[in-house]
Amino acid sequence: MFEGLSEKLAGIFDQLTRRGALSEEDVNAAMREVRRALLEADVALDVARTFIEKAKARAVGAEVVKSISPGQMVVKIVNDVLIETLGSDAEPIDLNAAPPIAIMMVGLQGAGKTTTTAKIAKRLTERFKKRVLMASLDVKRPAAQEQLAILGRQVGVETLPIIAGQTPVQIARRAEEAARLQGYDVVMFDTAGRTHIDEPLMAEMAEIKAAAKPHEILLVADALTGQDAVNLAKNFDDRVGITGIVLTRVDGDGRGGAALSMRAVTGKPIKLIGTGEKMEALDDFHPQRIANRILGMGDIVALVEKAAENIDAEKAARAAERMRKGKFDLQDMADQLAMAEKMGGLGGIMGLLPGVAKLKDAMANAKVDDKTLKRQRAIILSMTPEERRNPEIMKASRKKRIAAGAGMKVEDVNKLLKQHRATADMMKAMGGAPKRGPMAQMAQMFGM
Ligand code: GDP
């Protein structure tokens, strides 16, 4: 599905990564080409524009690392923006609810709704060991209910017995009751589609939603319809409210724009992708893997990530040296906090070191948690560089404004300043003492 876009991007970056130095004009020219490639792949105009703005801004502010070329850096930036556009993290179907968990499937006729319903039921049964009941609420298409029953037999999932003459809402109620009384974990509602969105369809979906009280409402959309699929998702979300999207026919030779625009336009995650007609042809949607498939530059991305780790190590060493000399200012503190966050918060740092149980307890006693780290950094980031170097120059009025800027109280600002002072003093007093490890520094920073 992403071959066309992938080839174009490869062409653009191939030229870029071979150059030694890049001017701003080089970057701009490359971004113009990326924008064109995105639009040709049928990515929504706004999404392409935002994409390029983000990538350009980051390219300008990017830290220069000696071991990699500017072109490689640009590839990494585009990769990151791509992942963010796709939604950053995989979001599977949410099964955290009291059973029977209701899943409602919506979408246009022929999008692959019935097929996908059976695919999901099969996966929930086999992989998640759930007892699933499926019900077709499609009373318009004569064979629809029978089609679901056939697929159910094929994948070994039960379907609600068909009673002719019932309305969709009646069937939904009957399915919910059967699932509840017979102890099913999940009940899936396959609704009727139309060839296009119309008022009666939306009214019916709203009615079914009210009766079925679904925990998930998944829109099934055909990736081959590109922009139309995106508009469809927006419409369904505005009218019915969806919790996620399943993109089908990703195995086809569509241009990929739908996959790239969906999340940005609707704010709703693509949860799964259909990759064929077979019942097994359903995959989780992993933004990182898809980005890698589109860019096809995993090696460069890994290289830059590695180099970035080195920057962090250099920064840490620099900060440690400053600490040792008693020159630990608020900027250093912000850097340390940022590093702590990057390493997965306190939990992440703890996990890296053996025998830190004692420190963990100490931090728990001091009520230091990840939220505290974030808040403290937010306060520092609201200060000017000059204030970070010389906190003494801050007057009460400035502190008030800084607190407001970080969404906190003046007391919080004062507390942070006190903490910083205590740390800096202690470091000064220790001047010349042997270098201390990052954990000890961190502990000190929190006044432990
Ligand atoms: P519904 O009207 O939305 O319920 O659509 P169906 O489930 O009946 O599917 C319509 C057709 O699309 C069937 O022939 C399916 O086998 C096919 N189909 C569904 N999902 C996919 C997919 O991910 N890839 C491909 N290639 N075909 C699919």
UniProtKB/TrEMBL annotation:
Membrane topology: Peripheral membrane protein
EC supergroup of this enzyme: hydrolase
Compartment(s) where it occurs, according to its Swiss-Prot or TrEMBL record: Cell inner membrane; Cytoplasm
EC identifiers of the protein: 3.6.5.4
Molecular function (Gene Ontology), one example: GTP binding
Chief location of this protein within or outside the cell: membrane
Keyword Nucleotide-binding in record: yes
Ranges where the SRP54-type proteins GTP-binding domain occurs: 269-282
InterPro entries: AAA+_ATPase (IPR003593), P-loop_NTPase (IPR027417), Signal_recog_part_SRP54_M_sf (IPR036891), Signal_recog_particl_SRP54_hlx (IPR013822), Signal_recog_particle_SRP54_M (IPR004125), SRP (IPR004780), SRP54 (IPR022941), SRP54_GTPase_dom (IPR000897)
Protein residues bound to GTP: 107-114, 190-194, 248-251
Reaction(s) the record says it catalyses: GTP + H2O = GDP + phosphate + H(+)
Family matches, as PROSITE patterns: SRP54
SUPFAM superfamilies per the UniProt record, alphabetical: P-loop containing nucleoside triphosphate hydrolases, Signal peptide-binding domain
Swiss-Prot/TrEMBL keywords: Cytoplasm, GTP-binding, Hydrolase, Nucleotide-binding, Ribonucleoprotein, RNA-binding, Signal recognition particle
Organism superkingdom: Bacteria
One GO biological process term: SRP-dependent cotranslational protein targeting to membrane
GO cellular component, one term: signal recognition particle
Functional description taken from the UniProt entry: Involved in targeting and insertion of nascent membrane proteins into the cytoplasmic membrane. Binds to the hydrophobic signal sequence of the ribosome-nascent chain (RNC) as it emerges from the ribosomes. The SRP-RNC complex is then targeted to the cytoplasmic membrane where it interacts with the SRP receptor FtsY. Interaction with FtsY leads to the transfer of the RNC complex to the Sec translocase for insertion into the membrane, the hydrolysis of GTP by both Ffh and FtsY, and the dissociation of the SRP-FtsY complex into the individual components.
Assembly behavior: Part of the signal recognition particle protein translocation system, which is composed of SRP and FtsY. SRP is a ribonucleoprotein composed of Ffh and a 4.5S RNA molecule.
Entry note about domains: Composed of three domains: the N-terminal N domain, which is responsible for interactions with the ribosome, the central G domain, which binds GTP, and the C-terminal M domain, which binds the RNA and the signal sequence of the RNC.
HAMAP family referenced in this protein's UniProt entry, alphabetically: SRP54 (MF_00306)
Family affiliation: Belongs to the GTP-binding SRP family. SRP54 subfamily.
Protein known as: Signal recognition particle protein
Organism: Rhodoblastus sphagnicola
